[in-house]
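A quick aside before the break. I want you to see a complete sequence-to-structure record at least once, exactly as it would be stored in a machine-readable document. Don't worry about memorizing anything.
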Amino acid sequence: MAPAVRRAALIFNPETGPFYPIFLRQFGTTPAYIGAEIAGAPVRNRADLEATVATLTRESDGGLIVAADAFTAANRPLIIELVERYRLPAIYYLRQAVAEGGLMSYGPDLVDIVRRSASYVDRILKGANPADLPVQQPNKFQLAINLKTAKTLGLTPPPTLLARADEVIE
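That is the input. The structure line, written in tokens, reads:
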């Protein structure tokens, strides 16, 4: 989507997303052919958020990965505003961010998660012990792309990416 990106920052709040350093170790083993470095960018408040986004834009090859945590969820409108102001490509974990003006998202289908949770509620109401129920992980993911935002950033999504998208917002 953004072929010029060579450095991406994963923003997260270490207090609401303490597991992200583990993910970052996995990013360290990313094959060289991907052509981008991924580094952690812990943010604890709105000022940290603005400083991180501003720092990424000092060079033309920066991008942003918005982690799934309570802080980034609560500050999603500010994040979208900052990446728009600084013209920074960003990917979010939630389709809602794309509907609000974010460039793209890839993450679990929340409607599917809620639908599947209904069977758990039913089983618990019928007497099942919640501790005996298996843990379920998302198994359906969505890719969403905002073409208006892509155009604003001067990006042309590849046709193959658009074909794979579950939703394209114009």
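Two observations worth writing down. The mean pLDDT is 90. Helices lie at 20-27, 46-56, 70-74, 76-85, 95-99, 110-125, 147-152, 159-164. We'll return to this after the break.
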